Structure formats: structure tokens, C-alpha cells
Amino acid sequence: MSVIDLRSDTVTQPTAGMREAMLNAELGDDVYGEDPTVNRLEQYLAAELGFAAGLFVPTGTMSNLLGLMAHCERGDEYIVGQQAHTYKYEGGGAAVLGSIQPQPLDMEDDGSLDLARVAAAIKQDDFHFARTRLLALENTMQGKVLPQAYLAAARELTRQHGLALHLDGARLYNAAVKLGVAAREITQHFDSVSVCLSKGLGAPVGSVLCGSAALIGKARRLRKMVGGGMRQAGVLAAAGLYALEHQVARLAQDHAHAERLAAGLKQLGFDVEPVQTNMVYVQVGERAAALKAFCAERGIKLTAAPRLRMVTHLDVATGEIDRVVEAFAAFNKL
Length: 334
Ligand SMILES: *Cc1c(COP(=O)(O)O)cnc(C)c1O
Fold this sequence. Notes:
Helix 1 packs antiparallel against helix 11 and helix 2 runs parallel beside helix 11 (about 235-245). Strands 2-8-7-6-5-3-4 form a seven-stranded mixed β-sheet, sandwiched between helices. A three-stranded antiparallel β-sheet has the order 9-10-12. Strands 1-11 form a two-stranded parallel ribbon. It is built from 14 helices and twelve strands. By secondary structure, the protein is an alpha/beta fold. Bound molecules: pyridoxal-5'-phosphate.
């Protein structure tokens, strides 16, 4: 019986083609700027997303941190959603390491921040206040795709107020595939973007920060400072390049699997939120821990949360989705 791991799309194993690309990668010392594969990855993604430069880093957390620190100085402020990864799930790094004050705002149901409330949160130029410098958005946000018109409006607002606009695009390609647009149609609105290679794209490690040459130059210095200067990192960058060249279009399959899972659970009477990409949210209430244990016995790994998140990815096959629905059906009959 295969193990089905729906806890996250970070759990994927490198595919055979990816392992081969890693094995054959040309390498050098990337701190000297001499790793040809890292350089290729950075240039490839920057060009694809419409930026002058890119920077390969070990994690999305570091990528976001360097982006925020490159935009904001000590005593500056960034506006961000209460549930956003940079604010809630990165150990408070922007505040701890960057002395950047977050101004969190409640989020709308579609994953956006209401722009009138963003505008109201921007502080006047007054020595009592931190200097509001940046708005950070996340796309996808809990599996939801931010509307393109919203991004254009956010760009316009930040332009009017002289703010920079950063995208935590950990799952940028899920959004692009869902919308059926090139990823740069999304990133065109932003001054910087962080992309995770190790989520649905299936690489074992790595994220890339993209932005202007000046911004990335600053981020490169900061990367060294926080210990993210890696040496023969091309062995990892090769996996990222392979993912970008071969494993983007297939994200549509993950989205279809999430739809299939949601439909199956709905039919069983579960309260399932509408699915857009590769995440299914279902209310399981106080049965969460029992459900997790029940599924674990059947080779299905879940987290235990009343609002349970299940994430599809390249190591989950169609038949396995059906196995999960069957397990929920059996659990329901207890
Ligand atoms: C996973 C994730 C990150 C951070 O990535 P790590 O590589 O785990 O540090 C940032 N933002 C979002 C939305 C994520 O899902």
C-alpha cells in the first residue's frame, strides 16, 4: 500500500529526470558567482518573470526576508495580511532580523487585502510613525488566486503612495496555471517576487527572489549576512531549473485532483470550501485528531486541524485521491 501524504506539497520526492539533472549539473562556487547552473536558474527565472535579476536561496522564508530587508530599512514598516506567510509563519523574521515593523490587516475571503483599508493604514510622514514602505501580498493565498484586476489596483495604489509591492509567490505557478496565463502576467505588477521551487514544482530545496539589479544586489549582501551563501549550489539549482522546464504544466493535474477530492468529500456530506488550485479545506471540527489517526492506519498522512487542509502534489495519483475519499467514507460511518 502506497503512502499518501496530503499534509503539504513540500513532501514531494525529486523525479527521475530531476535526479538526473542534479547528477549532471555543472558546478562552481556560487559565493564567487561561479556556479553556472545557479547563474542559469537565476537568469532564467528573472527573464521569465520580467525582472532584471534573480537570487537563489535555500528557502522561501529567506527569500521573503531578503526581499523585505532589501526594500525596508530599520524602522520602516510593511503592510501585510494577518494570515500571510511572511507575517505569521516566518518566525517574525522581518521584525527580528530586519527591524521592520509589520502592520498586519485582516484579510478578505478571497485572500486579498481591502485596498481602502490598506490606504487607511499607510502612515503620514510624521516622526511619531514608522515609515510605511511596502505592501506584501501572497498568491496563491491558502490556495486562492488573487484576481488580476486586484493586482493592477494594488499596483496603482502603491504607486500613488510611493510604496514598493512584494509578492510572496511561493505558489506563483499554481496561480498562473489556474488563470491560464504566463507567470509574468502576474509578476508584472510587482517590484519583487519570491518563488518556491520546493512546493508543487517538486524540487527538494530552493527559492528564487527576483527584482531589479539594485534590489537583488542588496539582497545578495543580505543573503551572505544571514548565512545563505551556498557553494556548489548548482546541484540544487539544477533541480529547480528542471522543475521550471518540465513540471509546471502538470500543476493542472494537482488542481484536478483537488477538485476530485473536494467533490468526493462533499458527496459524503463534508463542509468543503470551494477549490481553486491544489488545496482542499474541509471542516472536520473536533474529529480532527481521530480522523488523522484513522487515516494514518490506512497509509494516509493528514494534519490534525478542525479546518483541515489537504494539499495535492506530484506524488499523489488519481487512484490515491479515491482511496482518501473511501477512507473518509469509512470514517464517517464510525
Ligand atoms: C512555504 C511557503 C513559504 C516559505 O517557504 P520555506 O521554503 O518553507 O521557507 C513562504 N510563503 C508561502 C505562502 C509558503 O507556502
